[in-house]
Write a structure and sequence with these properties.
single chain, alpha/beta, Rossmann fold, TIM Barrel, nine-stranded mixed beta sheet, four-stranded parallel beta sheet, 11 helices, transmembrane helix, hydrolase activity, golgi apparatus, HSNSD_N, transferase
Amino acid sequence: MNLIVKLRRSFRTLVILLATFCLASIIISAYYLYTGYKQEMALVETTAEAACEDLKLLPYRSLELKTAKPIDPSKTDPTVLLFVESQYSQLGQDIIAILESSRFQYHMVITPAKGDIPPLTDNGRGKYTIVIYENILKYASMDSWNRELLEKYCVEYSVSIIGFHKANENSSPSTKLKGLPLHLYNNVALKDCVVNPQSPLLRITKAPRVEKGPLPGEDWTVFQFNHSTYQPVLLTELQTSRPPPAALPRAALYATVIQDLGLHDGIQRVLFGNNLTFWLHKLIFIDAISFLSGKKLTLSLDRYILVDIDDIFVGKEGTRMNINDVKALLETQNLLRTQVANFTFNLGFSGKFYHTGTEEEDEGDDLLLRSVDEFWWFPHMWSHMQPHLFHNESSLVEQMILNKEFAIEHGIPTGMGYAVAPHHSGVYPVHIQLYEAWKKVWHIRVTSTEEYPHLKPARYRRGFIHNGIMVLPRQTCGLFTHTIFYKEYPGGPQELDKSIRGGELFLTILLNPVGIFF
């Protein structure tokens, strides 16, 4: 009996010791896990370079750098498989616009309910190098058969996936992405984002890059993960003005764009916690396509930009350039030359309107001509008449000779071989007399127009050659003779700012290696 009691006491003591040891182990492990996490998410204050020198950056510093799974683009054709919600969905249209502007081939499929997928191979070769889902939840909720087919294809042919999640009022506060160690927290208001300088996919996007202030909208999604395959690309802070989802773990920074390095299941992915409205998302999206395609679908980093300023000397009194305007033009040109080698404004002149403004504006005309060697010049018709209104070639020649005589008198170069017609008249549809007169008077070799084959959408514009004259596709920056005042810009100044910060003008420069603007 005493032996049994002793054994019971010994066993109880052993259990207590084991429990104490386990509890101590848990506490120690939790401590090191917590401190390790804190180290992994350590923030270091640095000074930004270039335009951000006056900002304090908070770049993400990873404790352990992981290497992405190698991509072999030789097994697939350079084509994107794009799953969209509908033919007219906004995000789908934005993705298509970028693919088409970049001249990337794609095949669009409206995402079916069960996740059916088109044939992925042809004679043993992969048909697609990247798969893009407008709604990543449609990928996650595919039936097991189709998802297994798609993921097997991705692994075997080294194909990657890009996905977006745009939360709405019906989105649950948090979502577990099926089959992946990843949680999504929805409808979060964010601010002060920073690009992770250690992200391997960055190419056009520069890091560290900080965007101060609130991010547009309050429908952002942030990602939480517990696997080393994930690396944040874009990190942000929570806005304090709006409470976050109750289930969202507390952290210094939250990832709204992440890269899956393929260490979990052999498939690389890039996931966005919103659409492409935010300008940094556009840059990262283009970088993701380049990286995940093994540089098969990539844009050159070189840009050639020509800015035409039409209608020099043209305009009503009170709207023309004075001395201060000309000085500002020269200062702007010098400023741009610090970023764009040899940048020079190209001025299109109509000589008939010289000295037809106020006294201050006439002085501006004189300063322009005293600075003639600082700019490039091209003829823009003597009286700013539209060439298609001239039905015979001799009348056009007469007008051009007047403008050429004005140029010679004032030392304006006449041998550039480039001209632009007022309102692009006569360039396309072709007015034969215009081309003949250009060649006779100015020896024109190159012109440009925004009208071929259609004005909109701009990404469809192309060039052509007629009568030995090359016609280049021209872009617009939204500034015209009648929109010269910032506060009076159509739709308000915010419309111009939107075009610059991720809108049409931003994308035009981003996606066109050669840009001719007016």
